[in-house]
């Protein structure tokens, strides 16, 4: 199947062309002005089958009921192509006719002239397409299919079978929730939990990511039975806790930014993705009701390292000891 892009814009994101039924009224199902497919190097197809006898009311009722079931279950089915127009392909579902708009066809090359595109679609007559029903309105005799939706579903199933933990994939952010972001990795979505977005503190995923953004993700886990895929973005970045004891020593004085204030103290980021804890007892001398009486998020502060535990991923810091530490340095100087 062919997919095309032009200046970063996918063909199915473009405005839908003139409605198929309107085009049918203007120029019929297979417009005569389209040049023969063989002139463009395509293999032509002839419409197959004989003209059907008019269906009975009972047959039509059953066909619409069956179409409704497919529509509700979103099951993929195959339908033969019986015509084409500049709006898309005309298909047959039992005794009913439906259409597949151009925006829902994945294999139409981008950039063809209107005449060349018609000739390309002419080669599809007689073929069967895997599709899903995306719109159904019996009162308007309207039945709309999508080959693209069926293709995405089949790709998702194939990917689910082949994907393994440890793989690195490219995807697109599709939905942002407070607990994380969903990423389309080629027909199926995985979840990047908020804790797996960055080594730095992330209060809400929308602070870091946006819908449509392309990202690289690391596959943490795959649950094929529940169709759940756990992904990570931060694991593709260096872990700031690795080598902690070689970079920091007890007594060292650092500059940092307060990232979070809680009842028992404040977290201070001393390098990107690395936070240490200033316990409430290490904030300041004297008595105070709450750590917010001393610091707030965003404050730049000086801290002294009082504990380094790389294995336990803990960096203990102190603010109240900094004056003494700086005084010791000055005396030695």
Structure report:
There is one protein chain. By secondary structure, the chain is of the alpha+beta class. It has three domains: 5-150, Beta Barrel (OB fold (Dihydrolipoamide Acetyltransferase, E2P)); 163-236, OB fold (Dihydrolipoamide Acetyltransferase, E2P) (Beta Barrel); 244-332, OB fold (Dihydrolipoamide Acetyltransferase, E2P) (Beta Barrel), CATH 2.40.50. Helices cover 20% and strands 34% of the residues. The chain is built from six helices and 17 strands. The protein has helices at residues 20-27, 57-73, 114-122, 147-162, 244-247, 322-332, and strands at residues 5-6, 9-10, 77-85, 88-93, 96-101, 128-137, 142-146, 168-177, 180-184, 189-193, 214-223, 228-232, 253-262, 265-271, 274-279, 300-309, 314-318. A five-stranded antiparallel beta sheet has the order 5-4-3-6-7, with helices on both faces. Strand 8 and strand 9 form a beta hairpin. The relative contact order is 0.09.
Which helices and strands occur, and which strands form pairs?
Layout: E1 5-6, E2 9-10, H1 20-27, H2 57-73, E3 77-85, E4 88-93, E5 96-101, H3 114-122, E6 128-137, E7 142-146, H4 147-162, E8 168-177, E9 180-184, E10 189-193, E11 214-223, E12 228-232, H5 244-247, E13 253-262, E14 265-271, E15 274-279, E16 300-309, E17 314-318, H6 322-332
Parallel strand pairs: 10-12, 15-17
Antiparallel strand pairs: 1-2, 3-4, 3-6, 4-5, 6-7, 8-9, 8-11, 9-10, 11-12, 13-14, 13-16, 14-15, 16-17
